[in-house]
């Protein structure tokens, strides 16, 4: 590994390179003090001179005043103290380990076997979307520990799905849910509390019905949830610029460590601030990929689901305009799963565009006054209010 | 928040100085760089950079609220939990009380359908005292195409709320609360937005109306043509980017309703877009083509369509006008038939017709007879309810001056079909043009 790639400050790197250490292997076997001393091997020291056949009085060759000693040279000339050297060594050995070229004996540090991962996956139930067809194509629901991107044209129901998920994550464990809390990051101002209340009430109704059917021995269905309790467990952040969006995602791990039962983070929508007023596309790509990485890390570390809602744009491919999700090609690699919501005739459909474990399929769903439900093409929909 | 100075954030002196030395002054500059880039730039170790970025992020990060506290706050502090009632019962029910505060509501429809009438009515409602269901506040009306008619406003007021307006001085007070701005260009509009922000902070303004947004972008503002339809007008989407965010944030922090009108343009066949996985059979394409031929599309593009929260589509189908709730997070897709009367807009039925499918977004203009805002007949500014030009000509209700005026207006309006400027010969009407 190149020294140029190590995460150390520029001046430290410069010193290493000037001393002739360009790769990790050249100093990885040294101890910090050795490194500190070895770095300035090129200075003419007494030993070197003696080696070359010059006998001199013990004076430092540069200042010609003090007695030459290791500490004198360290302190005054290269200013690479023992501390700095220790730091460089720590970073170097850490990077070395990650490289995997550490002699290759036994398991690689930090890896997990596939068998363990399978067991882990089974421990976390998926978050239902309240629509059976949609759940089926998603393999049961939205998966925890993964980043799912959902995109569609305006008015197709992205925010509705987001609110539904924020409420469904709170379904108690007894009823097959996760019993967790939700973080809703709103960048467009489309979160309407009245709608969340409606969906929460409908969810509680469904749960009591379900509970009544399944647990006839249970006394009075034990469901003490009130819609206000559900609303209380949704943490709402309103973000007004991309700077705030990045800052918020930086702070999320601290927030989630304080509120341990957050099980889903919904960003509605991740695109909005990055589409307005952005001239430097390269910067945008860098910021977006940084953000995606942080979100993935969040999902993995805290075992929660991350759902990103995206907008659409048109792209000119093969002589015609096609609809595609916004933010460009490099962003399309950032998410683990991708679901596209679209109109098919008079019905709303969801299509699994990209997933490592699910096959491409589409399923119909509908948006009713109760939230996202199965597509009911033959039964009459209840009018709202 | 994004422009907060790093020097005021309480970072340790040494690192704050380094930031300043490298021209990284605001939080936005700092957070726009990745941690490695910052390390390169500032020449400090990774740990220091990480902790500095974490500190900055914490300060810039917006505060959180639970959805419950959000709701309670709104119910307590705001009129009807944050809605401006439109006095159209069906629409108010569909929108959970009325036009919501803090978000952008868009009115889109072909020319002459009633968007400006709706805006006038809303301005009036916002200025009414609270006892009559109003917001008791000032209204800022940005009138790009000079369509604002104070005479019409008073007429609506007198007909809808006679008990208020017949009292002495009330009409003056109500009308005095409506401030009309007429920016002639996009840059003037930008300036006035900044001023509006300041006056919003003084908490007197309760409604912002922008009529119309599309005219600003296409650069034709200030001339008094009454009708406009653009064929294949290519809106420059980027020019609106900053304005959209700014208006949305204005609406948010001051918690006022913002109503914006938009125009329509016709949709060309190659604009019909699908995803790559939507395979179109041959039969379907024929059907789609005929379907879309008669469709108009909202101007300003898909980016704008994403940015608005509520979209109300006004259209005319088989000689009846409809107002449709096309995009709304709180309402089902309902269409209400309506008419324009002397007291504003009147819904013919409070039970909306529920439309399934993407048809709710379609904008029809069939059987729409021209509506003239005013035509100077015999030197009178008169209201002409919907009547066809042909009818007028047939019954000879126009004198020579009137016909001249009419023809001038028609030529200014880009119909697909021809109109001869020969005074009395108007021909080539299609059944849905006239």
TrEMBL record, chain A:
- Provide a GO biological process annotation: meiotic DNA recombinase assembly
What is this protein identified as? Answer: DNA repair protein RAD51 homolog 3
Localization (cell): Nucleus
Q: Which family does it belong to?
A: Belongs to the RecA family. RAD51 subfamily.
Q: Where's the RecA family profile domain?
A: 123-312
Could you state a single Gene Ontology molecular function term? crossover junction DNA endonuclease activity
Fetch the PROSITE patterns from UniProt: RECA_2
What task does this protein carry out? Answer: Involved in the homologous recombination repair (HRR) pathway of double-stranded DNA breaks arising during DNA replication or induced by DNA-damaging agents.
Q: For this UniProt entry, what's an example GO CC term?
A: Rad51B-Rad51C-Rad51D-XRCC2 complex
Q: CDD domains in the record, alphabetically?
A: Rad51C (cd19492)
Q: Which residues form a coiled coil?
A: none
Q: Which UniProt keywords apply?
A: ATP-binding, DNA damage, DNA recombination, DNA repair, DNA-binding, Nucleotide-binding, Nucleus
Q: Does the keyword Cell wall biogenesis/degradation apply?
A: no
Q: Tell me which Gene3D superfamilies the record gives.
A: P-loop containing nucleotide triphosphate hydrolases (3.40.50.300)
């Amino acid at each position: 590994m190149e020294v140029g790639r190590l995460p150390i400050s520029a001046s430290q790197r410069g010193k290493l390179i000037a001393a002739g250490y360009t790769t990790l292997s050249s100093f990885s076997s040294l101890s910090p003090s050795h490194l500190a001393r070895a770095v300035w091997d090129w200075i003419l020291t007494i030993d070197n001179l003696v080696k070359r056949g010059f006998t001199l009085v013990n004076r430092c060759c540069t200042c010609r005043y003090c007695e030459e000693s290791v500490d004198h040279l360290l302190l005054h000339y290269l200013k690479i103290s023992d501390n700095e050297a220790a730091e460089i060594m720590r970073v170097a050995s850490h990077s070395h380990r990650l490289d995997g070229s550490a002699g290759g004996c036994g398991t690689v540090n930090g890896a997990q076997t596939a068998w363990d991962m399978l067991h882990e996956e089974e421990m976390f139930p998926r978050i239902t979307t309240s629509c059976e067809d949609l759940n089926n194509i998603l393999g049961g629901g939205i998966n925890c520990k993964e980043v799912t991107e959902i995109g569609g044209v305006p008015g197709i129901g992205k925010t509705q799905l987001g609110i539904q998920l924020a409420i469904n994550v709170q379904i108690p464990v007894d009823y097959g849910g996760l019993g967790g809390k939700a973080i809703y990051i709103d960048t467009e101002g489309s979160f309407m509390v009245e709608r969340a209340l409606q969906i929460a009430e409908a969810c509680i109704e469904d749960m009591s019905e379900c509970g009544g059917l399944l647990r006839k021995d249970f006394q009075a269905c034990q469901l003490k949830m009130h819609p206000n309790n559900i609303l209380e467990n949704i943490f709402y952040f309103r973000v007004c610029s991309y700077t705030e969006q990045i800052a918020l995602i930086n702070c999320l791990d601290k927030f989630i460590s304080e509120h341990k039962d957050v099980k889903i983070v919904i960003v509605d929508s991740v695109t909005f601030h990055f589409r307005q007023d952005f001239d430097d596309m390269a910067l945008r790509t860098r910021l977006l990929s940084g953000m995606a990485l942080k979100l993935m890390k969040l999902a993995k570390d805290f075992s929660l689901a991350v759902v990103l809602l995206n907008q659409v744009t048109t792209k000119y491919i093969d002589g015609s305009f096609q609809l595609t999700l916004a933010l460009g090609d490099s962003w399309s690699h950032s998410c683990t799963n991708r679901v596209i919501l679209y109109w098919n005739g008079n019905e709303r459909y969801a299509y699994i565009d990209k997933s490592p474990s699910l096959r491409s399929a589409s399923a119909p769903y509908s948006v009713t006054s109760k939230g996202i439900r199965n597509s009911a093409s033959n039964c009459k929909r209840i009018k709202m209010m | 928040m994004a422009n907060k100075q790093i020097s005021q954030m309480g970072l340790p002196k040494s690192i704050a100085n380094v930031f300043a030395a490298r021209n990284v002054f605001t939080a936005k500059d700092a957070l726009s760089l990745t941690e490695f880039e910052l390390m390169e730039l500032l020449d400090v170790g990774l740990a220091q950079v990480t902790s500095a970025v974490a500190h900055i992020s914490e300060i810039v990060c917006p505060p959180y609220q639970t959805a419950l506290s959000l709701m309670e706050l709104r119910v307590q502090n705001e009129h009807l939990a944050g809605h401006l009632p439109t006095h159209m019962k069906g629409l108010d029910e569909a929108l959970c009380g009325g036009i919501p505060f803090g978000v952008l509501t868009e009115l889109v429809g072909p020319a002459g359908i009633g968007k400006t009438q709706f805006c006038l009515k809303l301005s009036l409602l916002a200025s009414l005292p609270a006892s009559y269901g109003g917001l008791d506040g000032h209204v800022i009306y940005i009138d790009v195409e000079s369509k604002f008619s104070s005479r019409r406003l008073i007429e609506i007021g007198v007909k809808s709320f006679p008990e208020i307006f017949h009292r002495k001085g009330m009409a003056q007070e109500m009308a005095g609360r409506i401030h009309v701005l007429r920016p002639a260009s996009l840059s003037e509009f930008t300036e006035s937005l900044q001023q509006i922000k300041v006056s919003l902070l003084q908490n007197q303004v309760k409604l912002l109306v922008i009529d119309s947004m599309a005219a600003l972008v296409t650069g034709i503002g200030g001339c008094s043509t009454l009708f406009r339809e653009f064929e294949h007008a290519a809106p420059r989407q980027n020019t609106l980017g900053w304005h959209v965010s700014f208006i949305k944030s204005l609406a948010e922090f001051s918690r006022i309703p913002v109503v914006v009108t938009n125009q329509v343009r016709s949709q060309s066949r190659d604009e019909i877009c699908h995803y790559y996985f939507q395979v179109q059979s041959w039969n379907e394409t024929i059907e789609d083509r005929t379907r879309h031929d008669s469709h108009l599309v909202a101007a300003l593009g898909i980016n704008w369509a994403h940015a608005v929260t509520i979209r109300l589509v006004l259209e005319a189908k088989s000689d009846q006008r409809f107002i449709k709730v096309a995009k709304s997070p709180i309402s089902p897709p309902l269409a209400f038939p309506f008419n324009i009367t002397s007291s504003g807009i009147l819904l013919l039925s409070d039970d909306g017709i529920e439309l399934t499918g993407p048809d709710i977004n379609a904008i029809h203009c069939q059987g729409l007879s021209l509506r003239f805002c005013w035509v100077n007949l015999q030197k009178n500014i008169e209201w002409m309810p919907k009547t066809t030009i042909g009818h007028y000509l047939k019954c000879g209700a126009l004198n020579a001056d009137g016909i001249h005026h009419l023809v001038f207006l028609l030529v200014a309006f880009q119909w697909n079909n021809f109109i001869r400027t020969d005074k009395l010969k108007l021909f080539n009407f299609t059944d849905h043009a006239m």
